[in-house]
Amino acid sequence: MAAMVLALASCEKHDLFDENTITGAVGPEAYWEIESSAVKAGGAMGFTAQYYSSQEDIAYSKVWYSISQTLDKAVNCAWLSHSETSSIKTQQRITQEIAEYPHMEEFWSDSLHAYTFTDAFPVSGTLAPLTWVQPTEFDSAKMITYFGETYMQDFKDAVKAKMTYTTYKTNYIKLGLMEDFKQYTDSSYDWNVSSDSTVAKYYHFPLDENGNVQAWVMDSMNYYWEKVTFEDLILTQEGKYDVTYKRNYSLDAELRVYDVKGTWSKTISKEIVIN
Q1: Could you count the other beta carbons within 10 Å of the beta carbon of residue 141?
Q2: pLDDT of residue 195
Q3: H helical segments located in 56-205
Q4: Where are the domains of the chain?
Q5: What is the DSSP letter of 78?
Q6: Distances in whole angstroms, Cα of residue 143 to Cα of each of 58, 76, 137, 149, 150
Q7: What is the pLDDT at residue 192?
Q8: 206-226: b or e for each residue (b if 16 or more CB lie within 10 Å)?
Q9: Distance CA 2, CA 5 (A)
Q10: H or E stretch including 113?
């Protein structure tokens, strides 16, 4: 009995639900719809809002949004299978106030049992997308600006690591770096391919006794490699340079409705692509 009395007394003094619940002011109920999921830079995004409050009078509404940037990059080698691509999205600006809208009693709708109004918020013209895709004229300054100072040399080094007898021969002759490739050519037979010598025969660089390409051959390949430019590597048969750079922006927008005491509630955020 003593234990039960003690437990009941304890319950009267300590309301665990109340002690572990954070309470606060109740803000307005808010809902909105935007007119599109995309907007032109320098334009405006229209929207329709609905809101009401069961606690306090409404004071005003505000649109807030953050800005994110997406960079898509791609470079493809026309000589062999080597591609470098990336897509990175980063937040460029945290959520900030963009526009304010006064509350008016004439916004009330009997049919909706809520206040409603239609308006728009602005989008900066500086957020226009930038696109540089497969140009017909190569611009090294843009390449450095968009991809970095060392990118072209790094890409060239990565391609060189994949070069073979066939790709050296095909592209050196195509570029006119050498007229005759026979001095760098040897042949062998792979009988696992076929018992027919004409099928089993394949060509390669002259090898030393350890099976490595002879040094004088690689010296020549490296000599001519210095004459190869980055743009040579990415020039397609159609006469385009296979490089892509796209910079796009998007907004994460929300409507906040404030009452006269400064308590506010927000709508569901809307992602808007800027084009």
Answers
A1: 7
A2: 87
A3: 140-147, 151-160, 165-174, 197-200
A4: 25-134+247-275, 136-241
A5: S
A6: 53, 14, 12, 8, 10
A7: 85
A8: eeeeeeebeeebeebbeeebe
A9: 5
A10: none
Q: Which one-letter DSSP state was computed for residue 106?
A: G
* Residue 241: both structure tokens together: 């340079």
Q: What is the mean pLDDT of the chain?
A: 91
Q: Scanning the structure block, which residue is given the tokens 């989008």? A: 123
Distance (Å, rounded) from C-alpha 37 to C-alpha 45? Answer: 9
Q: DSSP character for 21?
A: -
Q: Crossing angle for the helix pair 151-160 and 140-147, nearest 10 degrees?
A: 90
pLDDT band at residue 26 under the 50/70/90 scheme: confident
pLDDT score of 137 more than 70: yes
Percent share of the chain, pLDDT over 90: 81
Mean pLDDT of 187-216: 89
Q: Are 44 and 234 in contact (CB under 8 A)?
A: no
106 — pLDDT class (breaks 50, 70, 90):
very high
Residues 73, 245 contacting (CB under 8 angstroms)? yes
275, two tokens: 């084009």
| Cα–Cα distance, 145 to 79 (Å, whole number) | 25
Q: Which residues pair with 29 in a beta bridge?
A: 52
Structure-block tokens of residue 29: 């109920």
- Tokens 């927008």 sit on residue: 253
d(C-alpha 85, C-alpha 97), whole Å: 35
Picking from 51, 71, 7, the residue whose alpha carbon sits closest to that of residue 263 is: 51
- Residues above pLDDT 70, as percent of the chain: 91
25-134+247-275 CATH fold: Immunoglobulin-like (2.60.40)
User: Do the Cβ atoms of 218 and 204 come closer than 8 Å?
Assistant: no
Q: Are strands 270-274 and 38-39 parallel, antiparallel or unpaired?
A: parallel
